[in-house]
Amino acid sequence: MAPRKRLLIIGFIVATSLYLVATGWFGTGFYRRQGYYDDDDILLNAAAANANSVGGVQSNKPPVTSSNKRILLVSALYPLSKSKHSLEDYQWWLWNYLGHVKTDIYFFAPPALHDLVSQARPKPNAANSKEGSNFFMKLNTTYPTVFDVPPLKGLRQSYEEIHAKDRERSYHSAELYAVWNAKPFFLKEGLREMKETWGKDYDYAFWVDAGSFRESPHKYEDWPDPARVEEVFAHASSEDSIFIPMHGMPSFKWRKWKEEMGPVDQDISEGSFFGGSQKAIEWYTSTFYTYHDHYLSLGHFVGKDQTLINAILLLFPDRFTTVFWRDITQRGFVRTYIGIACGGEWWYYQFFLANSQTRTEMEKIWLEKQSNRQKKVQEWLVGKPQCPLIPPLTLKEVLYRAFGPYWKPVPATVVPKKHVR
Ligand SMILES: *[C@@H]1O[C@H](CO)[C@@H](O)[C@H](O)[C@H]1NC(C)=O
Predict the structure, then answer these.
(1) Which residue's CA is the nearest one to ligand 1's atom 14?
(2) Where are the domains of the chain?
(3) Buried b (16+ CB within 10 A) or exposed e, 200-239
(4) Cα separation of 255 and 407, whole Å?
């Protein structure tokens, strides 16, 4: 064989392997590291809905078919002063969320947005009479700006200072950090207010980014489905776990991470949706702000909530449960090609937490958006083009996969105390 030919063959093999690694064939998925945050906004932060995918196995536990668990969603909208989004953008996002998802919602916004937010929510009685799915909403306009929220009061200066340490500083701001870091407080307070002021008790509460329903049309109404939520927590190590979707496999290097090293800078956890029981939320909130204050006092960059959450995940993996479509057991190759059958990969948790009827309806919507060629490729690869429902994972399961079976959770020395501010 001529050396040139041999070189070509070797080159081909190398290129193919690189491609497979890049597309996540080996579980980690190195590409698609773009900024997922649509950074210039509110608590709409979340992500550009990248059409990508989930491949996978099915859970073997029997599904819970009905559930009487009461669920509260908590959201907020604090536009950044230099936001590139228009009023129409907000209106559209709000309507796509508040106008469709019927589950009870507690909403925080500045007084100036009172009308915009309340108009996006249909009136309970006129819209729907079915019990428990009634477009109920409480709007709270107590905080004029996000820096008026108790755990963030007086932090503007420090946030301006840590801005210099942010590798993404060109498109982040102190105000955005506050918007991200206010979420656990809002979630805890929304749930507490509903109970203490309005006498309404819930089994689970979840934070939802107000701009996270960008798929249009979508069919998420009685969402999240209480039975699905119950199933997810049945898999968790405790009833009082926090559920948080994951976006990326922790890099192998983090196996040596220690508490004093501060926030873990990688796209691992997603910040757009999380929650659990009241007990779980109370624990999470006090832990979040304890570490927030601790790391801030040590001069660490705490502006991006996801990196702070990542640290907490490594410290307390027993407390968390997740859905992780990039899990090593989910076939990367299929994932790449199935892409559009699941909508955007960042939002997979929406599909994952919906009831089976809604999931079927969403699959139909996604299928209609596909070209004939995409459909054919999918049919050839995986048979019926549908979005797989993958099982939930505990954080420990994920971390053992990332770091190997000898990894041990990192000892936590900063004891979370009741947050008093
Ligand atoms: C708004 O929320 C805050 C924090 O939970 C609470 O102290 C306040 O009473 C609420 N205000 C109204 C009008 O519900």
Answers:
(1) 140
(2) 71-325+393-403
(3) bebbbbbbbbbbbbbbeebbbbbbbbbbbbbbbbebbebe
(4) 7
Q: What is the pTM of this model?
A: 0.84
Measure Cα distances from 16 to 3, 10, 13, 116, 290 in Å.
20, 10, 5, 52, 47
**Measured in angstroms, how far is the CA atom of residue 139 from the centroid of ligand 1?**
9
More confident residue, 325 or 1: 325
Ligand 1 proximity of 134 Cβ (cutoff 6 Å) = no
Q: What are phi and psi of 275, to 5 degrees?
A: 165, -170
Residue 115 has pLDDT above 50, yes or no: yes
In DSSP terms, 207 is beta-bridged to: 74, 274
pLDDT digits (tens, 9 = 90+) for 328-383: 666 544 454 455 678 888 899 999 999 999 999 998 998 888 888 877 877 777 67
Residue closest via CA to ligand 1's atom 13 equals 140
Is the confidence at residue 31, as pLDDT, over 60?
no
CA 144 to centroid of ligand 1, rounded, Å: 12
Domain 71-325+393-403, architecture per CATH = Alpha-Beta Complex (3.90)
Instruction: Identify which has the larger pLDDT, 196 or 163.
Output: 196
Closest approach atom of ligand 1 to CA 190: 5
CA 146–ligand 1 middle distance (angstroms): 14
Q: Is there a contact between 240 and 176 (Cβ–Cβ < 8 Å)?
A: no
Which tokens sit at 21? 């690694």
